[in-house]
Amino acid sequence: MNQAAAAVAGTGRTPQSYRHLVLQLALKDFKIRYTHSVLGYTWSVLNPLIFSIVYFLVFSVFVRFDIPNYPGYLLLGIVLWNFFAESTSHGVGSLLAQGGIITKVAIPRQVVVLAAVLNALLTFAISLTILGTLLFVTGVPMGWPLVSLPLLLLDLIVLALGVSLLLAPLHVRFHDVGYLWSVALQLGFWLTPIIYTDTMIPERWRWLIVYNPLARIILYSRQVVIYAQWPDWVGVTKTSLLALAVLVGGWLSFRRLQVRLVEHF
Q1: How far apart are CA 82 and CA 15, in angstroms?
Q2: What average pLDDT does the structure give for the chain?
Q3: Which of the 8 DSSP states describes residue 2?
Q4: What's the CA gap between 57 and 3, in Å, rounded?
């Protein structure tokens, strides 16, 4: 039994111990990611910073859009999208990646998926800190609507977790799911108004935005952070309900499919 499996086996089977296990698995993966690099944890700051600077240069200097406060508009969209892409990618592949633990220790399988999303959340927190600093330095006005941002971020986390729970057990059974999700993320980046506005989309394609909860989360987040405007609360409520529906659907699907997971490792 490897060290990770031993640590899992050593925890008492209580809700508190499982919460501790989720945290430990997330921190372990976060540390392993930077263990053998010269700069170590510095990369957790440099990665989002370099990525943001590249997109800023490309779409603010070389390719210009007539959008008010475009640098902040662009960087916020990228940070939110990156969390969704990273958390779901890790979440979808988490069960397969932790197969050594799952086949040796009797633990709730969803613990592994939760840990993968939490791992991405650690990087997300760093990215948000960097973004907040950049917005403050560039003079982006902050107003009372900013207090609604935590709700929008919660919707984003709930949506990412729901997708991860839905696809993770399917990826164990059909490895193609991971590849298909990677393609879907690449397409989703360009189909979601991240580098452009929803008004640039032809009318007949607007339904792609209306029924895309991630697009709505990014839209409302920009309103409260970049433009200091209160979001459309009816739209926020619908988005929250849709994100919750995805989570419930993912959870129920996971419970049904996890029973025979070990057979497919």
Answers
A1: 30
A2: 82
A3: -
A4: 44
